[in-house]
Amino acid sequence: MADGMHKDNAPAPAPSSSARPSPAHPAPAHPGAVRLGRCVAVLGAPALLALTLGWLFLGVGTLRTAVVWTALATLSACLFALAGYVLATGRVTARRAYELALDAVAAPAAGVPAAPVPATLHGSRWTWARIIATAVAVPATVVLLLALGTAEPDRGATAGRIAGAGYVIKELPVVAVGNVERAGSSPRASSQADYTVRLPSRDGGRGVPATFRAEVDKGVADVGETFFVGYPPDRPRLGAVGAGDRSTVEAQLAGRTQPGGVFLFVFVWALLGVPALLMGAAVAPPFRERRVDGGWVALRATVAGTAEHVEPRSNAPKREGAAPARYPCLTLRTEAGDVPLHLTAASHKCAAPLLVGTEGWLLWRRTVANGKSSADFVADDGWQLPGRVPGAEAVRVADRPRGKAPIDAGRRVRLLGLGSLWPRTVPVRILLGTVLTAAAMAALLLPADGGWRPWTALAGALAPLVAAVFVRD
Asked: Is the terminal CB of the chain with fewer CB neighbours within 10 Å at N or C?
């Protein structure tokens, strides 16, 4: 066995899949579950992204209403379609879903011993889409709930009248202060107060007094200090809105939901989203189909079980106690020894009992890069399973002398997507928690301010966790 492999959980050998009994006709491919999973991946994540961007950056008006409610309707349709399908067809275990996926693509009657290598390998675009959608959806949900909970979507009647009448923004001095509310006992604590200014008059008189309520980060603004004030110059008696910075006034008059700015949300999004996307892109299988040629490594292989692969962190800082990377793999027995194959977005524990004894070709493009090399196991039964081979193993095997593999341009295989039937494996309690989260989001989209918003957002964030713990399928 190759170094770094610990085969302590390999299942007992099972008959080859090409030898096991099979029905006269291929098993049903369950196209409903496959199509539903694809639709949720390609519609749900963009809808969630559009909802988040529209809520953060668009001002009040028809465009924002159309964007956020269309996005919410799309998310709700995906969610209720998923829930309806699970309730109608019944939930199955992950192992059963893998078995159904395998039966749908296997063609034992067409399999022959030592079948040639196909000249073209499929790209795993739907697995790629599912991984990227997850990488987009998770941070977007966190940012959206945070933005919804802290939003001020009701810009108020005064700001609406001013925006409708046409406005200017000028820096004006305060002439009176009243109704002060401090956030703490310290004189430098933030506060809210009613500030009165005099709006410039068209005829050059003393001006029209206007009062607005504004928040100050430190202490209370004194008479004579200035605020940025938005008001309609032709109709000054409609009132005014003001704040310590111009962007807050512009956001309030435009009806944007975060008058204080969106920097915090963009920062959180970047903090969570960029690593998630990079990780998703790193583990996702190749998107496009590939041509196999003489530059590829091709090994006859037999699935022998599972193992935990231990890989030293060669790129980690040199420090004492740095733990090596550990991850599960399928063990493929080859002429070059046991080679680990790490599956993408699939459970090795559930897949191994179905695949043990299967013979075929293990293929990957020759590489010397660190990390994992994209690889595919092409079974003699006519299916292709994408995965990754650790970089050190790929280099070790590539350096060994090998014979030339037979490549058949006419051979066709089908892609085995072990996770393609994921809609049938979703627990009802997870669906219930997600429905409650969507309901909380819908409530928070209403143009109403108040202390209820943070609590509703918190309840929506915790709903899936509470349902997972306390609800039984």
From this structure: C
Q: Quick one: fold of 156-254?
A: OB fold (Dihydrolipoamide Acetyltransferase, E2P) (2.40.50)
pTM above 0.85, yes or no: no
Q: From the CB of residue 54, how many other CB atoms can be counted at a distance below 10 Å?
A: 19
Q: For 19, list phi and psi in degrees, rounded to 5.
A: -100, -15
pLDDT digits (tens), the chain, 473 positions: 444 544 444 444 444 444 344 433 344 447 788 999 999 999 999 999 999 999 988 888 889 889 999 999 999 999 999 999 988 888 899 999 999 999 888 876 555 667 888 999 998 888 888 999 999 999 999 999 999 998 888 777 888 888 888 889 999 998 998 888 888 878 788 888 889 999 987 776 678 898 888 888 888 888 888 999 999 988 888 888 888 888 888 888 888 888 777 888 888 888 888 888 888 877 778 878 889 988 889 999 999 998 888 777 655 454 455 677 788 899 999 988 899 999 988 889 999 999 999 999 999 987 655 567 889 999 998 899 999 998 888 888 887 877 778 888 888 899 998 989 999 999 989 999 999 999 999 999 988 888 899 999 999 999 999 998 888 76
Q: How far apart are CA 357 and CA 333, in angstroms?
A: 10
* Residue range(s) occupied by CATH 2.40.50 in the chain: 156-254
Task: Please state, in angstroms and rounded to a whole number, the distance separating the CA atoms of residues 415 and 344.
Answer: 13
